[in-house]
Design brief:
This protein is mainly alpha-helical. Helices cover 70% and strands 0% of the residues.
Length: 205
Amino acid sequence: MISLLASNPLAFFIVFPGLLLAIAVHEFAHAFIADKLGDPTPRYQGRVTLNPLAHLDPIGTLAILLTRFGWGKPVPFDPYNLKDPVRDTALISIAGPISNIVMASVLALVLRLGLIGPMWINAGLFQVLVINIVLAIFNLIPVAPLDGSKIITAFLPRTTAIEYEQFMSRYGIIVLLFLIFPFGGVSPATLLIWPVIEFIVNVLV
């Protein structure tokens, strides 16, 4: 991201705020659905808001600036406040990726209708669109602490789900680091999700 600031400052001031907004929308969606499903924890912690400052992690934001890869503050929720903890946890988790798909769809509509004229703005908005798709699909990978790990447990038999959660609590971070490490310049996660990302981008734009 710093390199983008040096090479194209105008694009930076679209893409960087757009990325921060994408993270904020993602985390807000988690908080909003948890609140609607009966858990007041996110509201008590001030997370049911679109204000990016409530959702940004300082180290994660710095990582975005330096590497284009970062993270926001996870939204805490208490499963014991939910009527159906397994189902509702999956709904809370999938809300984040869905919110980014919706945000990307809105940007695609703006680009298709040509509502914004200057080419450099459109190029920046296209990058933000892609960022939202990447954020959505990456988070659907079923590895803790990503959203996909909580979604998949809703579809597994109870015994298998417990074993899966135990495995992920111990080794999830290791598996995730393996997936994002660039072997030969390309990470296994990129090879896994990029065809899906390209497909969705092509459908939208």
